[in-house]
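Q: Start with the shorter request: fold the first protein.
A: Done. Sequence, then structure:
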Amino acid sequence: MTSSLNIRAALSLGAQLLNVSPSALLDCEVLLAYVLKKNRSYLRAWPDKTLRANEQSSFTALLMRRQTGEPVAHITGTREFWSRPFQVSPDVLIPRPETELLIEITQQKFQPHQPLNILDLGTGSGAIAITLALEFKQSKVIAIDASSAALTIAKKNAKQLGANNVDFIYSDWFTNAPNNTFDLIISNPPYICNTDPHLSAGDVRFEPSSALISEQQGLRDIKHIISYAPNFMCDDSYLLFEHGYQQGNDVQSLLKSAQFKAIEQFNDLQDHTRATLGRKPSS
């Protein structure tokens, strides 16, 4: 980049450098705001502010990293979820906006003052577990993951965000889960088939495959959870999944075969079926 650029010019040139990204201008705004230690609204309020040389060089270095495909969330070390900043790293799945659908569904089914017992399977960064702990303050949340590195990130997020009602357990799904019964078991499990071409594009190239890929056409982990979840569910409790946009019928059939009741499915903002809910089978 040339010297003495203002914010407007830096963003324009940055977007040209990142023209292969469908979110080039947004990426530039996030990166420049990160360099300036400001929020994005500052960039719009002060477009004619001239960048200092060190700010410009830092911004350029971050753009070069983004050009290689490195996710913006990995570059900045954070990603917003439910309007809260979560630390992320290559050890965890980057929280996605569509996963907020799980929070919305939970809020539809329960009142915020209810003292719930909630189990989050495959917590990753802790985005789901911590958000539920903060939105349902009288509840107790158990968050499980089979990655100790992911749990380290999740614990940092819980401390930073003040979620004192969530505990983290190292476990391969239910193996080390407490012998409790839960009002809600919730999960954003691995559900991508290992032959899916999307695995070779975008941010997922930089994310842990263990958080993305599942055998049996992406359904192995979902099948496992459906099989064992009733042993950890209290009467009239719920099991709630995120899944792939083409897996709705399969997940619904799996829940029906396991005798789950009152099965509901929910669409994301693109009108794709991305979450399925079922009530515990009758004893």
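Q: Next, the second protein, separately.
A: Sequence, then structure:
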Amino acid sequence: MTVELSLRGVEKRYGRTQVLSDVSFTCPPGNITAFCGPNGAGKSTALRILTGITRADHGGALVNERSLLSVREPARLVGVLLDASAFHPGRTVRETLRLSAFTIGEPKQRADACAELVGLNSVAHRRVGQLSLGMRQRLGIAHALLGRPKALVLDEPSNGLDPNGIVWLDRLLRRFADDGGTVLISTHHIAAVERTADRLVAISRGRIVADTSIADVRGTRTTVASNDERLRTVLVRAGHRVVPAQGRYRVDLSAPEVGRLAMEHGIPLTELRPDDNCLDEFLAEVTDHEFAGVSPR
């Protein structure tokens, strides 16, 4: 069984503040979807609605086209890590995992296996409050895997991980997706998106501003220039996003298609080249330069 996760027409307001407006996107199985946006854009609220923690005012979360609220034993479908600091600091790693395993009907051996999978066997006797941030992240990932889920929803999963830990996480998520699992990661780290993601969903001011494949972001944009002022009007009227860039335009269209449009309207071009677009530049553009992604140190 595979799992498709979706938000459909989600609206959420806190008091007079509209936090989410008509938010819709889908995370397909077999893919790693990156969920990106500036601080305060609505990512955390969207994830809380997607995982059933918060109710939407309108619309909602779907699992294989069924309402998440109607799903029995959701931990066996969706594993969640939203806040690695939420575990009780006085319990040990082993106690934390075994207690959660018990509540979802899994044996203690499953808890121990997940601790081993994330490399926490040697510190299973330690209290959570004594763990480093990276170890708490590993504990959160182990916790998300307890129910043998078909989908993972992870908020900033690489926080606190050292370089070896980041490589380990990349491989874990890639293997999970390649086995047919669904992965959604919320992150500010563009390097993580570039390394592992198949799809990108971007949010800004509570609205989805991009929902595309990473390959499309990288491969279908063009830098073009012309002394003919009609060029921008022609591209915009054809329905394409046009961004001024140092006397040129960046267009979400392949170079041959831009050339064809220019030729049809008799517009001479002074420059036409494929744009090896960087994801951080793309995100900055679609979020009106609110987003400033950073690579993990």
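Q: Describe the second briefly.
A: The two ends are 37 Å apart (CA to CA). The mean pLDDT is 91.
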